Amino acid sequence: QVQLRESGGGSVQAGGSLKLSCVPSGAIVSNNCVGWFRQVAGKEREGVAILCVGMGNSYLHASVRGRFTISRSHEGVDLQMNRMKPEDTGMYYCAAGWQKPIMGWSPSPETRKYPYWGQGTQVTVSS
Questions:
Q1: Which contacts qualify for 56-63: CB closer than 8 Å, 24 or more apart?
Q2: DSSP 67
Q3: 26-57 per-position pLDDT tens digit
Q4: Predicted confidence band at 9 (pLDDT cuts at 50, 70, 90)?
Q5: HSE (side-chain half, CA atoms, 13 Å) at 81
Q6: Rounded Cα–Cα distance for residues 40 and 120 (Å)
Q7: Whole-angstrom Cα distance, residue 10 to residue 60?
Q8: pLDDT tens profile 65-118
Q9: Which stretches of the chain are assigned E, i.e. beta strand?
Q10: Interatomic CA distance for residues 93 and 28, integer angstroms
Q11: 111: CB partners within 8 A, 6+ apart
């Protein structure tokens, strides 16, 4: 059973928008942090945006600040991607894990902190 359902990937022109959605199910719902990671061929997977429930702690990669917004949806989290650039291209993976929510703390973007992963959805931005 797929417990991190991803949707919203596709191809857009530079300057366009896409919205990715991630819906956890089953035991994964008990994890307090859900986020999106991106991987490009030949590069390491990196955190793009992460949101933790409770105190609302979040992480946003510097390269997408002002353009991407991560938020809670009815069933999980959404990543709204606006004014997209070719460098946003990659395979996007939703991931879930548990991290202690402390005041002023930002969730870690390290992949090892997230034991649960979706199958990935391709995002391509053409110039």
A1: 57/101, 57/102, 57/105, 57/106, 57/107, 58/106, 58/107, 59/35, 59/106, 59/107, 59/108, 59/109, 61/109, 63/87
A2: T
A3: 888 788 899 999 999 999 999 999 999 877 89
A4: very high
A5: 31
A6: 12
A7: 21
A8: 999 999 999 989 999 999 999 999 999 999 999 998 788 889 999 999 999 999
A9: 4-7, 10-13, 18-24, 33-39, 46-52, 58-60, 68-72, 77-81, 90-97, 116-117, 121-126
A10: 15
A11: 37, 45, 47, 95
Q: How many CB atoms lie within 10 A of CB 118?
A: 22
C-beta neighbour count of 112 within 10 angstroms: 7
CA neighbours closer than 13 Å in the CB half-sphere of residue 120 = 12
